[in-house]
Amino acid sequence: MYDLTSQPVNMINSSPPLLHHYGELARLPPQVPTPERNDLPDGTVLMEEYGQLPLIDLSCLSSTNEKVRLACADAICRASSEWGFFQVVNHGISPELIRNMRREQVKLFQTPFDKKATCGVLNNSYRWGTPTATCPKQFSWSEAFHIPISKVFEQACYGEFSSLREVMVEFAAAMSKLARLLAGVLAENVGHPRGVFESTCQESNCFLRLNRYPACPISSEISGLVPHTDSDYLTILSQDEVGGLQLMKDSKWVAVKPNPDALIVNIGDLSQVRLNF
């Protein structure tokens, strides 16, 4: 029903493997993008030029002042409707926990490709790129682990990566709590009780995704992640200081400047279906 996502970008320097199923993409002439070409796609505007992505202080939801609580909930719903994205601060997830998660994530991604692809870590969820791509614009130059929350607690899921388990269990629980809080606010906005998702939102439907987007040495046409909409209910994104996230607003791509104190919330396609049954 919703994704739980941590997304450090360009954390380490390494050359991604080009396997046989990438086909013609591997035969493109080598071309390392220059900083001028690699900054922003044509037509992209900076957030400062467009207007600030809504920033919401979630501590207001627990205020003793009813007007403050209602105003905060209204801001969440308005941002969801007008932007589909918003940032949250005072979200209850400690900076130390986020740093620990990123530290473990760096260690995991630094593992040699052959080992990551075959050792079965994190429910054998490792993926690189887009094997079905037929042209550069369809190819996502990234690697990721996409694990159901229900598997996060299983010792056998981690193998030799024992230090990863403790951090992921704590991180998954914290993100799940935050996601349920936000989902409850959105449900209440359309007349449903805040607990409407408790019986339908199962751990097997919720995921924690670890992503890495290295620089692509093959072609400037290839993106870290191809343009898309999230098919789930909501995504909570932890963006590192490198940046690179872009969203579409009023038919314009807008570059989102990283905020070290904020998490980004993305309203997915299922939100409309689930909240209007």
TrEMBL record:
The keyword Repeat does not apply. The keyword Iron applies. One of its GO terms (molecular function) is metal ion binding. It holds the Pfam family 2OG-FeII_Oxy. Residues 203-277 form the Fe2OG dioxygenase domain. Keywords: Iron, Metal-binding, Oxidoreductase. Belongs to the iron/ascorbate-dependent oxidoreductase family. This is Gibberellin 2-beta-dioxygenase 6-like. It comes from Populus alba x Populus x berolinensis.
